[in-house]
Structure prediction request, 352 residues.
Amino acid sequence: MTLLSIDWFFFFEKLTLIAIVVFGSLGIALYTTFAERKVAGLLQDRPGPNRAGPFGLLQPFADGLKLITKEEIIPNSSNKALFILGPGLAMTAALMTCAVVPWGKTIEVLQHTVDLQIADVNIGMLYVFGVVSMGVYGIMIGGWASNNKFSLMAALRGASQAISYELAMGLSLIALIMVTGSLSLKTIVEQQVAPGHFWNIVYQPLGFLIFIVCAFAECNRTPFDLPEAENELNFGYHQEYSSMKLGFYLFSEYINMFISSVIMATLFFGGYDIPFVNDIALKDTLGNWLALLQLGSLITKAVIFIFVFMWVRWTIPRFRYDQLMDLGWKKLVPLALFNMLLTGAWILWQQG
Prediction:
């Protein structure tokens, strides 16, 4: 392959998409921290952050500046290479998940058709699971490399929690795959958008319920925040971290929450589909603006799920660890298996 044979437009198209998605995810995660504090204030009858900038809108930048300017501390007893690797791996895994998400249909740029998806792979759901599974290594490596008993206990909690709930999540998605017949997220969205079809939440309500509960556990969100149980484990697996290493762990949690919300919207709620609107009819009228409306529809659905994440955090107390394992293995796994068998019976009845 020579330099002249490379499709440079395709190369810059994907590079631009990657930059937009990465920086967009970081920006949304930045302001999700602000939104969480505002939601907490609303539920607790207090104003929340309101000093930095108008209505407190510059508070996320103040928090980021504080983290950047904090002293960088690496414990002498830690494994320094792995101590640095842990938060970087957590952040990388969080950002890689969005590579297979279809953010909209297509737009026309300089007489080229640009697909609003970084990579349309036919095993997109397996890719998401593989990358999500990598995220727990960031927790494990950080907790072990700190050489702190509380951090190690938190890392072990995080690993066992991830293993337990990934099983139920995977089983819930097997039923969805049986209905859609595809592992490609783009194909799954196109099936939901097609005339005569409904969103997958209609066909898989139990699968969605199992998935969202497991998403809470995978994101370490209350009531599943056992790896970060401050009153039990002294701030959890990132106890020894400071400055932007701590910031990476904190921001990766919010990016995971955002991407989990986008994945739920994509799999069960039509993805970029605009409810009660004929997208095909609007394409001729709006042109590229339709893609922005579709992106806005997907982000709106994700924001609703993010609010649910926050609402649950400030409403429900944390589980005990035995309750966490009991729910995962004795409740969700059997429910997911039952849902899979029920879906198979329904498909056979439809075909017969």
